[in-house]
Design brief:
alpha/beta, 872 residues
């Protein structure tokens, strides 16, 4: 049984935004037992959210040292440029956007403790230390000769490291050891690598495969979407679209390649108007735009949406950072989506499409699986999905070579170590593969024959331009600058051969001559190694091909290489179903049964809270609307949430037939821990954060002496709140945040306080209540002062330390003044403009206030210097 560790973040989860699965949750425990964790689950199985809860838990149990700020307990996320780049929808980038939207990073105050960078080598030039480093799409770091690998392992230090990759093997099974080498470099110590042999599928029974295995102390996972989901949902049946046999679309020469593409698309669209196609290319100008123009000759029009009367296509260039998110819907999509693999091979969700067309073919099965994963999603509604390859019949080019290499790697290395869903193989493909070896060898020898100093120099220029183009914020999808001569087929093929594996940088070498020599040597080594591999086609691989050709029912299963053969082979292929195979084996595991009981106990409170969440939020929204702040903060008047809520529930829901007619004792006992996750309290926390921003100067080093004429603190804070999705009720949102960009509305919406006339012993007295928003400002800022300390940390760098307990420090600038007074008063004593115009002038002088109206007492004393004999 795992050791129970308190997880405050767990109680702040919004069950309406994220469902926790036991296999995901177990990764938190893995991080307790291991300094390096390897999440190799299938594409679309929830690795992003799983890593998010690992990060939350790490941050909670590794607080930042406020006295000496550093990132040594913080989190670094390394992901692709497409997922790291901010856009209008995801201001922190898509990867962190998914974390921050679905998980309580903001509620825990952790958004500033997470940094995201893309995986370009320029991001690792400085020596930096972090608590937890999460490497997304970790297979992109496997090339030990790359500057990306070199700088990461030399300059980044971590206490813990997590690798995320659905396709961890790119070149061969030796790639798996590279992950342990990266981990050791980051952690600065040896790590256990015994898991490498544990992954080997040979001589394994189905129940012993990594995909059927459960141990929270084991650092590696390889789970599939349906396995993850079926272990959470009773009676779950596979709903993901079935992977149909991979298809080959053959063209005679490069000239008629687009013609064949168009013919197949038109045929499939006539068969079903629901068919949608994603075309992966290598270049924008040379391929994507060429395809688009050809489609237009057949009546297609360029549009990023569906049209009722016309077939449509759209080219994603990468110039618009928000562009990719426009196609994550299931309907209203263009018929054909054309994009380059550099911007769309990872992290993109396209559940409305059902055909992947490989116009460009990668040499690596990992890349082809990533592409298929764009449409093979749990929320896909397609009845079937297809993987299609464009291959020449009498035209052998880099795509043909890449295709042969991908099948060779898939059969020779991948299945021995990682059970895999079929992405690539079909009878047609296997038959083609067995007849391609001679052409592949001839093609490689031809590339070798044209490799000379002049060609390498030209190659270097193009690769360097591509490298700089894909670096700091560049357009990774843009065309070659400059384009190769379109008539020079030899050079284009050689460039295509190099582009996936070779990157160049002036920083890596002493001079240009050395760089070119290294590039030429690398190309020759790669060609020589491929020739050696292809010339010694293994007997085992041939027998596997024969076995697959005679067993057509493995195309939609998880399959692997096993040791015992029913056909007298040295080994053959086994297959297993993710639900009635992997999930059943795990569910019968005693370790899993014990863990499941622990998991259910851990999530009992947030799951029960889900039942009451909406009604509780409406209760507090109503308290805010009615200025009943004693219900928002009952401790001020020596009451409690527990007492108030119990009384309210008994009064309003006692006769209800709903499940939540009685407020759960478990909820009542933990109510203070749960409230911060409610939308209204999340809004209040953000409001405080927005207000506090304005007490500092723009460089965040000193407190403001004055506000500029264009800074309207309250209006700006409200506009910022309006742009956030807290989950507030529609009525509450419309009451305060509709049209918040029109600043003139603030006077009428928030400026007029409530005035009551109360008869006390026959006398009429005025009782003033400050508005709810001004009350909120007072409550959120009353204990803080503008006293600050400048503390020297590193060299010329200074940082602020807030002092939350009021005190006078005559050696420093400032006095014991509540921050509320700072917001409303200038140094001269007059009101700040934003307060005077919108709130203060409308508060009438009162004869007395309510005894328990703590907020109005404080506000009226601050803004009007009114003192009272408080009466009932």
């Amino acid at each position: 049984m795992p050791v129970t560790v308190k997880k405050k973040w767990l109680n702040l989860l919004d069950p309406n935004k994220v469902i926790l699965y036991p296999l995901q949750f177990a990764n938190v425990e893995r991080l307790y037992s291991n300094d390096a964790v390897y999440i190799f689950d299938e594409v679309g199985s929830g690795k992003t959210i799983s890593s998010g809860i690992m990060a939350l838990d790490f941050l909670e149990h590794h607080p930042r040292d406020d006295a000496r700020w550093s990132a040594e307990n913080d989190v670094l996320v390394i992901t692709t440029n497409a997922l790291a780049r901010p856009n209008e929808v995801k201001v922190a980038g898509q990867f962190l956007g998914d974390w921050f939207d679905k998980l309580p990073f903001s509620d825990m105050g952790y958004t500033n403790r997470v940094r995201v960078v893309n995986n370009h080598h320029s991001k690792f030039k400085q020596r930096l230390s972090y608590g937890l480093v999460i490497i997304d799409e970790a297979h992109l770091f496997l090339n030990r000769d790359s500057l990306r690998y070199e700088l990461l392992t030399a300059n980044i230090t971590a206490k813990k490291v997590v690798f995320l990759s659905a396709t961890p093997i790119k070149y061969s099974s030796s790639d798996l050891r590279t992950y342990t080498e990266i981990a050791e470099a980051l952690l600065k110590k040896k790590v256990d690598s015994s898991w490498l042999q544990r992954l080997n599928t040979l001589d394994k029974k189905p129940e012993d495969l990594i995909s059927s295995y459960f141990d929270v102390k084991f650092p590696v996972t390889r789970y599939f979407k349906d396995t993850v989901k079926s272990l959470q949902i009773e009676g779950y049946k596979k709903t993901v679209a079935r992977r149909y046999e991979t298809q080959i679309w053959r063209y005679k020469s490069y000239v008629n390649k687009n013609e064949v593409l168009l013919e197949n698309i038109q045929t499939l669209y006539r068969e079903s108007k629901a068919n949608r196609f994603v075309v992966f290319t290598r270049y924008v100008e040379r391929e994507a735009y060429s395809i688009g123009k050809y489609l237009e000759t057949a009546g297609f029009v360029s549009s990023n949406t569906e049209r009722a009367d016309q077939l449509t296509y759209y080219i994603v260039t990468g110039r618009n950072t928000q562009e990719l998110s426009d196609f994550s819907a299931k309907t209203g999509l263009p018929t054909v989506l054309i994009l380059t693999y550099q911007i769309a091979e990872q992290g993109l969700n396209l559940p409305g499409y059902n055909h992947i067309i490989n116009y460009h073919i990668s040499a690596y099965p990992s890349a082809l699986e990533q592409r298929y994963g764009r449409i093979d999603r749990l929320d896909s509604e397609s009845e079937a999905i297809y993987n299609c390859f464009l291959l020449g019949t009498s035209y052998f080019d880099s795509n043909y070579l890449n295709f042969y290499s991908a099948v060779y790697t898939y059969l020779g290395s991948l299945l021995k170590y990682l059970p895999s869903r079929n992405t690539l193989l079909s009878p047609d493909i296997l038959k083609a593969y067995t007849s391609m070896r001679y052409e592949a060898e001839r093609y490689l020898k031809h590339l070798l024959s044209i490799l000379n100093d002049q060609t390498v120099s030209k190659l270097y220029d193009h690769l360097l331009a591509l490298e700089s183009h894909s670096g700091e914020g560049g357009l990774i999808s843009a065309s070659l600058p400059p384009n190769p001569n379109p008539t020079d087929e030899d050079f284009k093929n050689l460039l295509d051969f190099c582009r996936e594996d070779f990157s160049v940088s002036d920083e890596q070498y002493a001079n240009r001559v050395e760089a070119e020599q290294s590039l030429q040597a690398g190309i020759r080594d790669k060609i020589d190694n491929l020739l050696k591999d292809f010339s010694k086609e293994s007997d085992e691989r041939t027998k596997v091909i024969d076995f697959l050709l005679n067993n057509n029912n493995v195309w939609d299963h998880i399959f692997y290489q096993k040791g015992q053969s029913t056909l007298g082979l040295s080994y053959d292929v086994g297959w297993i179903d993710p639900i009635v195979g992997c999930a059943e084996f795990i569910s019968e595991n005693n370790a899993y049964k014990e863990y499941l009981a622990y998991f259910n106990q851990q999530i009992k409170l947030p799951m029960e809270f889900k039942v009451y969440r909406d009604k509780l939020n409406l209760y507090f929204e109503s308290a805010f609307n009615n200025n009943d702040f004693n219900f928002l903060y009952p401790e001020i008047v020596k009451s409690s949430y527990k007492e108030n809520l119990k009384e309210y529930w008994d009064k309003n829901y006692k006769d209800s037939t709903e499940r939540d007619k009685e407020l759960s004792p478990l909820i009542l006992e933990n109510i203070k821990d749960l409230l911060p996750s409610l939308p209204v309290f999340r809004m209040i926390a953000q409001f405080k954060s927005e207000l506090l921003r304005f007490i500092l100067t723009d460089n965040a080093e000193f407190y403001r002496d004055r506000f500029n004429g264009d800074v309207h603190v309250f209006a700006y804070a409200m506009a910022r709140l309006a742009s956030r999705d807290f989950g507030l009720s529609k009525e509450f949102y419309n009451r305060y945040f509709a049209d918040t960009h029109k600043m003139d509305q603030y006077k009428s919406q928030f400026g007029v306080p409530v005035v009551k006339e109360i008869s006390d012993k026959g006398e009429v007295k005025k009782v003033s209540e400050a508005t709810n928003w001004l009350k909120l400002v007072y409550h959120l800022t009353r204990k803080e002062t503008y006293i600050c300390k400048l503390r020297r940390i590193y060299g010329e760098t200074y940082t602020l330390e807030y002092v939350f307990t009021p005190k006078v420090d005559h050696t420093m600038r400032g006095y014991d003044v509540p921050l509320f007074n700072y917001f409303i008063s200038r140094n001269s004593g007059s009101f700040r403009t934003w307060v005077e115009n919108n709130l203060v002038n409308h508060i009438p002088r009162a004869d007395y206030i309510w005894l328990k109206d703590y907020w109005s007492d404080g506000i009226l004393n601050a803004v009007r210097k009114q003192t009272f004999e408080i009466k009932l």
